[in-house]
Write a structure and sequence with these properties.
It is a single chain. By secondary structure, the chain is an alpha/beta fold. It folds into two domains: 7-165, NAD(P)-binding Rossmann-like Domain (Rossmann fold); 171-292, N-(1-d-carboxylethyl)-l-norvaline Dehydrogenase, domain 2. Helices cover 53% and strands 11% of the residues. The protein has 14 helices and nine strands. The strands form two sheets. It has a six-stranded parallel beta sheet with strand order 3-2-1-4-5-6. It has a three-stranded mixed beta sheet with strand order 7-8-9. Helix 1 (14-25) links the parallel strand 1 and strand 2 (30-33). Helix 9 (168-196) crosses helix 10, helix 9 crosses helix 11 (216-227) and helix 10 (201-209) runs antiparallel to helix 11. The termini are far apart. The mean pLDDT is 97.
């Protein structure tokens, strides 16, 4: 069996760390880099090696990045000792963050000019899903690059190919997160309505999530809402606000009205202003309850 390539992982928040851990568990050599080195320690203990810079993490030809936003992705990619300066010719940068289609297109062009490839590869799934190799990954970019990294993506989950336009996968991801946020808001309002009428939201959730809404989003987030299980967060409130903003910007650019996105934006802003920024984004349900005169906590 051919020796596996060392994979670089840049960005070790909860998702990046879970993906790096999964690769290590499945026998991949891994080099890790994080802006705050303390996040590297658990992975070093599992056998990863420390990369001094994002460029060093990319030196073996395949690097995954998982960072918070456009600015962070640009910094680790094109900044001093960034990924782009370290990838060898023919290398592949697998960008797994939720970022704007615009930054994806810009970085793809920069990679192409440097003789390397950029794949938009954002993921659906929380850290435990990443750790068990069950992510759903939207992928777009050059076909040859997809072929090269296919074994890596298959270790992390199931890839869905959205063609060669590098920004396409990010549009898919932004749309998916917008749908999740909309489902959270709908459940928050519905459960509040039920409680105000003296009906058990928990019992109704059991009905909904086992019949007409028997899907992971409704089961997971509906359960979090009725249990008030918002900490530790799987996806922090400011990230939800960011993603709704990405949807609104993408809609504006394409001439697509997204009126409900504006409702969600106001809900996230209000929740953060009330000191809930460190909670899971499903904690917008607390604001729905408060607006109806219910005790939120």
């Amino acid at each position: 069996m051919a020796e596996k390539t060392r994979i670089g992982v840049v960005g070790l928040g909860s998702m990046g760390a879970a993906m790096a851990g999964r690769l290590l568990d499945q026998g991949w050599p891994v080099a890790v880099w994080n802006r705050s080195p303390a996040a590297e320690e658990p992975l070093l203990a599992k056998g990863a090696v420390r990369a001094a810079t994002p460029a060093e993490a990319a030196a073996n030809g395949i690097v995954l990045s998982m960072v918070a936003d456009d600015a962070a992705l640009k910094s680790v990619t094109t900044g001093d000792a960034g990924i782009l300066s370290g990838l060898p010719q023919g290398g592949v940068h697998v960008s797994m963050s939720t970022v704007s289609p615009a930054i994806a297109a810009d970085l793809a062009a920069a990679h192409q000019a440097a003789g390397v490839a950029y794949l938009g590869s954002p993921v659906f799934g929380r850290p435990p899903v990443a750790g068990s190799g069950q992510l759903r990954i939207a992928v777009s970019g050059p076909a040859a690059a997809k072929d090269r990294v296919r074994p890596v993506l298959e270790t992390l989950g199931q890839a869905h190919d959205f063609g060669e336009a590098p920004e396409a996968a990010n549009v898919v991801k932004i749309g998916g997160n917008f749908m999740i946020a909309a489902a959270i808001e709908a459940m928050a309002e519905t459960f509040t309505l039920l409680e105000k009428h003296g009906v058990s939201a928990r019992q109704a959730h059991e009905l909904y999530s086992s019949s007409i809404f028997a899907a992971p989003v409704y089961k997971l987030y509906g359960g979090a809402i009725v249990d008030r299980a918002f900490s530790p967060p799987g996806f922090r409130m400011p990230l939800g606000l960011k993603d709704v903003g990405l949807a609104m910007a993408a809609g504006e650019k394409a001439g697509v009205p997204l009126p409900f996105a504006a409702v969600l934006r106001e809900r996230f802003i209000g929740s953060i202003a009330r000191g809930r920024g460190d909670l899971d984004w499903s904690a917008i349900a607390l604001d729905a309850a408060e607006a109806a005169g219910l005790k939120a906590e």
